[in-house]
Amino acid sequence: MSYREAQVAGQFYPGTPGQLREMLNELFRLAGKDAGEAEAPVAGIVAPHAGYVFSGLQAAKAYQYLKGSTYRLVCIFSPSHREYFSGISLYPGEGYRTPLGECPVHPQGRDEALKCGGVSLSEAGHRSEHALEVQLPFLQHVLGDLQILPMVMGDQDAASIRNAAHCVRHLHEQFGEDILFVASSDLSHFHPAEEARKMDAAFMSMLETADDAQILEAVRRGQVEACGAGPVMAVLRGLGKETHRVRVLGYSHSGEMTGDRREVVGYTSALILRTDRDPGKGHA
């Protein structure tokens, strides 16, 4: 089976290794100005997935806290922007490739994920999707060599979110502190900047309390927006607020870069921190 080649290199982020590393170094330098301490181990991350010039700084604010970590497996849940399908698609090939190298699929993690309802091996949602791919250079930059579980949610209905959350919980029980979960999501789309800021503030407030049920209801009512709300809710629910808490790291919108505040896209990032140091078996 083949590696999935980078589809948005040169568009969403630089297409050559040197230029990509240069941009990542600058993003992490800027993010580091506001960095504090990760007062607990990081079990998960919420990160945006727009072009790096728009959302890369928000993503770097979260990924910088992984420096020095030794995760053996990273499970990334992404929405599907270009293909609609039922269930959760796990890439069937050897892995993903970016300008920084290869990210192989973790064999045991794949076997465990396929035990979960709604998860199947398929290229659906992986062929040209950017929301998962753009997370990989950040992970490669801070973790070096890593193995991944690339998971795309074709729909984000209640059943799919429930299945994805069950899979997060199952994988967490199997791999413990050796696994990191990434939920890929932007926030509101194409509202005036002030309206977007209010909507996104409401979403971030619910995110910080890890209230996935409240997020689900607010999304259903159109009070907040997040194209990756399903992945976010699945990771929150799967890890559980009994043993984890969320720390939101910042906010920006596309108008801050373009100067056009009539229709913006909102971005945030967050850490999901363990409050219980014995979450699972702890092996990979």
Averaged pLDDT: 93
Strand content: 15-25%
Classified in CATH, the superfamily of one domain is: LigB-like
Shape: globular
Straight-line N-to-C gap: 22 Å
Query: Which spans have pLDDT < 50 for at least 5 consecutive residues?
Result: 278-284
Q: Sheet bearing the most strands, described? A: 9 strands, mixed
The count of helical stretches stands at: 10
Give the C-level CATH assignment of one domain. Answer: Alpha Beta
CATH architecture of one domain, by name, is 3-Layer(aba) Sandwich
Helix coverage percent of residues?
A: 25-40%
How large is the radius of gyration? Answer: 17 Å
Tell me the number of strands.
Answer: 12
Element string (H = helix, E = strand)? EHEHEEEEHEHHEHEEHHHEHE
| CATH fold-level label of one domain | Protocatechuate 4,5-dioxygenase, Chain B
Structural category: alpha/beta
Description of the molecule:
With 284 residues, the chain is an alpha/beta fold. The protein has a domain at 42-124 and 144-150 and 158-258 and 268-274: Protocatechuate 4,5-dioxygenase, Chain B (3-Layer(aba) Sandwich). 38% of the residues lie in helices and 23% in strands. The protein contains ten helices and twelve strands. Helix 1 (17-32) crosses helix 2 (52-63) and helix 6 (158-175) crosses helix 9 (229-239). The longest helix is centred in the middle third of the chain and has 18 residues, at 158-175. Mean pLDDT is 93; it is low at 278-284.
Name the descriptors.
284 residues; alpha/beta; Protocatechuate 4,5-dioxygenase, Chain B; 10 helices; globular; disordered C terminus
